[in-house]
Amino acid sequence: MNIKIDLNAKRIPTDFSWQFGMGNDHAATLLRTDVAEHIKRIHAELGIKYIRFHGIFDDDMLCYQALGDNANFGGLPKSKQCCAYNFHEVGRVYDNVLAAGLKPFVELSFMPSRLASGSKRGFPHRRYWNNITMPKSLAKWQEFIRAFIRFIIDRYGKEEVESWYFEVWNEPDLGCFFKGSQKDYFKLYKATAEAVKSVDPALKVGGPSTSACRWVGDFVAFCRQSGSPVDFVTTHHYPGDGFGNTFTLSDAFKMMGVSKEAAAKGTKLGEIYKKLFFKPQVYAKWHRGVLKELDEKALKEAAGLPLYITEWNSMAVFGAPVHDEKYSSAFLVRACLDLENKLSGYMFWCMSDVFEEMALIGEPFHGSFGIISIDGIPKPNFWAFKLLSMLCKERLETQGKAKEGVEYAAFTDGEKVQVLLFDQSHDYSRHEKTDVTVELAGAYKRVNVYKIDDTHCNPKKVWQEMGAPAYISPETAKEIERRSCLTPETLPFGGKMTLNISTNDVVMLEFLK
Hints:
The structure is a single chain. By secondary structure, the protein is of the alpha/beta class. Among the domains are: 2-10 and 395-512, Glycosyl hydrolase domain, family 39 (Immunoglobulin-like), CATH 2.60.40; 49-237, Glycosidases (TIM Barrel). It is built from 14 helices and 20 strands. Helix 5 (182-199) links the parallel strand 8 (165-168) and strand 9. The protein is globular and about 75 Å long.
């Protein structure tokens, strides 16, 4: 394959909307010192501005307590149990967020048990008990929301909080996050948005925060017909949209079989999740640019309102090895290069592998969604975002897209020229190699070569070469990072160079005079 870079090509602004923000599991994890360090690093090194997470009102955040929550007083009549708001744990979380240099993209979820109409939980395990039912009284829910808004304004100041965003709930179209209908969610949204605005009309509020770009048009129409406040639209997308949208009866039977086998063999928990949810034969059928198609549909349905994709990733399934490998890097590079400065924010899910929604796995590189491992080691997708953060602000309009094989994009600041090459494939079994020759005219004498491939930026491989220890000490984590960090190789350049690129490799060439 021959690529000739035309420096006279039209220049367009490089899209950095992915830097707007990222997600990160649920609120309680932000009280941890290791997660606080992870998010601080992501802001400092990748330029991420906002962070979004679930469950600021979950019972583990102690926002609405009663005397009866103490078992010693549980026998008291409810009328004498003395309920009280307490937002101090949420305040500690936001303190950590702001100290890291980030701002909150506030997801108003889930329902405190004391306000809930039912007891349905989305993730009923010891570390993540989120009540997903409607409030038993919308009026009392509004009172609670107003108290919360007053608390954060008193704590952080009106000007600061007006720079935040307020999103109502998470994925109300899925039964694991909301027990109710679309009509129920719209009722909840209207009540919540009005409560937020009643305290400060300048605060920005939006929704519907759905999976698979669902309900966007219906939501906008509802807001306009009902007069509900709305400043922006949010939704999510993943290829295939994984667990929650593609889960079938046969998968349920498979889960029972996998669980039985795992119990008999003593299989590690991370490996069990891989067997439960990782379906490479299904993913191989996906095509390049699938997220861009969903973006275009959502943009049209948003009808001129700012659109934020507040969750996306290469897969929506926990335990998939691709989250720890170059596969994710190639996917996210292509997804970000597909953006055309139309979205207001493109928020990857998520920052840290300290992730409790499914289970907090202690095994290194167990296929969690984050870009930093549980041991604080940047993964290949971290380094892919690092490359994207290094791009020049102007992009050359080139014809570097293809249905398969190597693709490329070129950037310049008038002095240096960058060429980003990648061979993104959804087929996990595909391992093809392509010789690529890049030509560039001009007085360019050197080239910095950055690689994310099987031997570069691959901490999982370094860990495996160490014997795949079950636990990694802080010293070992530093050694793994040292051996897998993004490091350029500087080579002389004479107008042409040839590289060998494999499936899901990412290579950036930076040409210097």
